Amino acid sequence: MAKKGQESGSTRRMIMTLLKMKGPLTIGALAEELGITEMGVRRHVLQLEQESLAKTKVVRQAMGRPMHVYSLTERAEDHFPKSYHNLALELLRELDHGSGLDAVNVLFEGRRRRMLAQYTPMMQNRDLEQRVAELSAIQNAGGYMAEWSKEEDGSYVMREFNCPIRQVATQYRKACQCEQHLFEELLDAKVTRSECMAEGGQCCRYAITPNKKEKTSENSK
């Protein structure tokens, strides 16, 4: 069973590769390229359609019946290798080399300000625990695999188990500094990072302590 599943996955991958490199293609053309039956190809292509990874288009001919040709969707692009972090690093290095590290830091600060403006409305009229939960959701949406918990002393801990910008942060620590400052501004609390993946940690761990105003408000309830 495992071998059959592996073969199915391999055929599916080859179909996607052919559509990427040579598409749009008909079922017949795919079958000829792969050396398998049209029925076998059709089964895989229909599955790709159901998953919104492939789409079909009817092409009318001067003579004969219309042809159904298949191509990949935008969603399928996520299944192919990307090197965005390499491009980002190359651009940052060029800026660093040409204008100096201060220019690179200005970029990270600009990114922090844009994110602050984007997410601040989502934190309004919420207490600290709600803000921590919202920040964790924001980070999860960005691929950081974040979770949070409340400690016995009333503080909070947020952990991120993935860092989409790890390659960049490893070479430019300003990225981590800006993230920490962004969290402090969004949460209106003291945020301390005790572990960082860019420094070889298993996760990025943040201790979140209510400010005096927040503590006073909670004690008065």
From TrEMBL:
Lineage top rank: taxon: Bacteria
Organism per entry: Paenibacillus phytohabitans
Keywords carried by this UniProt record: DNA-binding
SUPFAM superfamilies: Winged helix' DNA-binding domain
Protein name: HTH domain-containing protein
Pfam families in UniProt: HTH_24 (PF13412)
Presence of the UniProt keyword DNA-binding in the record: yes
CDD domains attached to this UniProt entry: HTH_ARSR
